[in-house]
């Protein structure tokens, strides 16, 4: 027990001796000078103390701010010594010197108070630390400081940031520093010329940070006054009844205590009724109150007697409106700055509009490529065979589920997608051939029966998918290299998956052009399309061509299902979401024509995105308007954009 007490006494003595040396350090002297503000800190009073530490240039200044922000700074109640400390246990502190960062010793926590800054003070401390972080040797710390400036930069950071630019060695970080410096100059520049010159450097810039800096400058407040005060930067002077309703204008007067509340007829009538005494109200006979002027006199008498609250009549409202001015005033007092900001914002809005159009066009092109993939197989089967295949959407669904099953077996997403594409083609090709051999071949030239039969098959395939996979949506996960997006700027961006689908659509366009123009199957398909009887007389087997063509179209639908499943949830109803658009694409483009299908998909994609842009909150309305447009379109072009030539000759 004796040795334990002796050890504690020696540690306390050693710590006390070290504390006396620490008290002589310059950073400690600075803290002593600011002690009252630090110990009794508040968000409103602490800034001078923080600024004194930040701008002192002393070696321990950064450490003080860091430990202060982290709530690790302590002060001795008796000596006023500031240290930073770790809690060894409930009763002991391990204290450190701010000037050297070295351990002073371990002491009992009796007589030591922890400095606990609130969230507001910690925000100020974090802001002050930016000065040191901007020159930190670690680039990650410098980037973190710039992130902080982008969110919470203020006037105090401007000079600090400027000083750090010249010594910056990283070109990317230096570019960010220069941009943030110009943004801060827009808000806090010392002169009008400096602020407007900084704005000119951002002309046409699409960055959201620029608009964020301009919005406070162009913010306005609506005001009523007897006259416009000198020095007011007026954005717009308002005329009651034209630029602002008379009611709203008078409400501004009431809010500014420039006029009494408005007297409504109902309120006046109720007040008069409540104060009828011996057949009179305010010395006016009740029978005279049918006259509006007498009612006003009676109410005025009640006000004079202190019975009614003062309120404005219609005539008084008119007088008050004519006697005051109404205007929108900028928060920014300098007209030259607001004028420059408005010019910059107009240039930005022009470029924003152009880029929004480009972004919308990319979305429409992406949607068109999806519709093209979904419809390309249908275009061939419908064009060659004249079969209205209502189960085409289910082949898309089968392809998506094939991709899902492959991913359960092959966990590598890149490999699984590569395997899923040919496997989905094989599965849906086989299903298409089986459907053609078992059902459709018996229903040629009977379109109504074909439609009903394929619709029944569609329902059966959906139910089969539900029985196998359940009703829960299944994910078809894209590889990592397909995640993210291709961003041209803050406005124009498109996901990598959509880019991949667009490329896949181009690949299939090239494949079909090669197939139809350069292969025997393509030659036979075109012959059967033009005139099946003549093709049969030349030795071509129309049944075989029909079977292969139907299988090919179904196989393409399976590949489309894999592509669509990468960004859409795979369910048994997946195909139903695309079957209507697929038929519209084929009909609008021209039955059986690959170029017509491409044009039809493009037209429908752009049309749908355009309608959604005008009415973004109601996609169902967009679908309805699109169908109405297609109905009108086929009244004028019943055979589509590019009409098929030939099959009618054989009918």
Overview of the structural elements:
- Mean pLDDT is 83; it is low at 1-21 and 646-651.
- This protein has a five-stranded antiparallel sheet with strand order 4-3-2-1-5. Strands 6-10-7 form a three-stranded antiparallel sheet.
- It is an alpha+beta fold and 651 residues long.
- The protein folds into four domains: 2-123, no CATH class; 134-218; 220-330, no CATH class; 353-650, ABC transporter involved in vitamin B12 uptake, BtuC (Orthogonal Bundle).
- It starts with a helix and ends in a 15-residue tail after the last helix.
- It contains 26 helices and twelve strands.
- It has helices at 2-22, 26-33, 35-39, 47-54, 61-69, 119-133, 139-152, 156-165, 171-188, 192-200, 208-218, 246-255, 265-274, 292-304, 314-323, 335-385, 392-409, 413-438, 447-469, 496-518, 520-530, 532-537, 542-565, 576-589, 594-614, 619-636; strands spanning 73-76, 82-87, 92-96, 103-108, 112-114, 220-225, 234-238, 280-281, 284-285, 325-330, 485-487, 493-495.
């Amino acid at each position: 027990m004796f040795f334990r007490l002796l050890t504690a006494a020696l540690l306390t003595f050693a710590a006390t001796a070290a504390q006396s040396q620490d008290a002589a350090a310059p950073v400690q002297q600075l803290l002593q000078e600011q002690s009252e503000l630090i110990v009794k800190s508040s968000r409103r009073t602490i800034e001078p103390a923080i600024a004194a530490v930040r701008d002192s240039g002393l070696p321990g200044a950064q450490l003080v701010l860091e430990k202060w922000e982290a709530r690790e700074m302590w002060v001795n109640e008796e000596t006023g010594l500031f240290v930073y400390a770790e809690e060894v246990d409930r009763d002991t502190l391990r204290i450190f010197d701010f000037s050297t960062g070295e351990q002073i010793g371990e002491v009992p926590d009796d007589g030591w108070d922890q400095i606990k800054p609130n969230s507001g003070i910690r925000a100020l401390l974090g802001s002050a630390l930016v000065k040191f972080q901007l020159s930190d040797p670690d680039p990650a710390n410098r980037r973190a400081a710039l992130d902080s400036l982008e969110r919470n930069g203020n006037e105090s950071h401007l000079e600090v940031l400027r000083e750090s630019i010249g010594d910056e060695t990283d070109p990317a970080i230096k570019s960010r520093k220069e941009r943030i410096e110009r943004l801060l100059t827009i808000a806090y520049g010392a002169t009008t010329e400096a602020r407007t010159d900084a704005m000119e450097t951002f002309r046409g810039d699409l960055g959201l940070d620029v608009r964020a800096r301009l919005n406070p400058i162009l913010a306005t407040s609506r005001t009523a006054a007897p006259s416009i005060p000198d020095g007011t930067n007026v954005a717009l002077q308002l005329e009651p009844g034209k630029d602002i309703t008379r009611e709203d204008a008078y409400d501004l007067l009431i809010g500014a205590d420039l006029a009494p509340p408005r007297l409504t007829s109902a309120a006046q009538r109720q007040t008069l009724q409540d104060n009828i005494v011996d057949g009179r109200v305010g010395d006016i006979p009740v029978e005279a109150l049918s006259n509006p002027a007498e009612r006003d006199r009676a109410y005025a008498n009640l006000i004079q007697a202190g019975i009614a609250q003062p309120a404005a009549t219609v005539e008084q409202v008119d007088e008050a409106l004519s006697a005051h001015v109404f205007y929108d005033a900028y928060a920014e007092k300098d007209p030259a700055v607001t004028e420059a900001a408005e010019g910059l914002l107009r240039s930005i809005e022009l470029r924003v509009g152009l880029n929004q159009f480009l972004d919308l066009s990319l979305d429409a092109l992406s949607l068109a490529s999806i519709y093209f993939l979904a419809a390309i197989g249908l275009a061939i089967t419908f064009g060659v065979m004249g079969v209205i295949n209502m189960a085409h959407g289910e082949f898309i669904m089968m392809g998506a589920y094939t991709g899902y099953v492959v991913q359960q077996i092959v966990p590598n997403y890149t490999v699984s997608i590569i395997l899923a594409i040919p496997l989905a083609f094989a599965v849906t090709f086989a299903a298409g051939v089986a459907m053609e051999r078992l059902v459709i071949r018996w229903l040629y030239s009977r379109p109504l029966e074909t439609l009903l039969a394929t619709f029944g098959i569609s329902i059966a395939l959906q139910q089969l998918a539900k029985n196998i996979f359940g009703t829960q949506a299944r994910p078809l996960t894209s590889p990592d290299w397909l995640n993210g997006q291709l961003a041209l700027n803050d406005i124009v961006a498109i996901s990598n998956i959509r880019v991949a689908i667009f490329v896949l659509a181009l690949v299939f366009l090239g494949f079909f052009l090669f197939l139809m123009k350069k292969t025997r199957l393509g030659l036979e398909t075109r012959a059967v399309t033009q005139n099946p009887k003549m093709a049969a007389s030349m030795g071509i087997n129309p049944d075989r061509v029909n079977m292969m063509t139907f299988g090919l179209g179904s196989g393409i639908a399976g590949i489309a299902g894999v592509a669509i499943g990468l960004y859409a949830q795979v369910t048994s109803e997946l195909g139903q979401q695309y079957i209507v658009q697929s038929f519209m694409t084929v009909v609008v483009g021209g039955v059986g024509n690959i170029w017509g299908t491409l044009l039809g998909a493009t037209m429908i994609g752009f049309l749908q995105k355009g309608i959604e842009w005008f009415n973004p909150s109601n996609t169902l309305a967009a679908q309805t308007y699109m169908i109405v447009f297609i109905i009108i379109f086929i009244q004028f072009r019943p055979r589509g954009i590019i009409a098929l030539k030939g099959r009618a000759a054989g009918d």
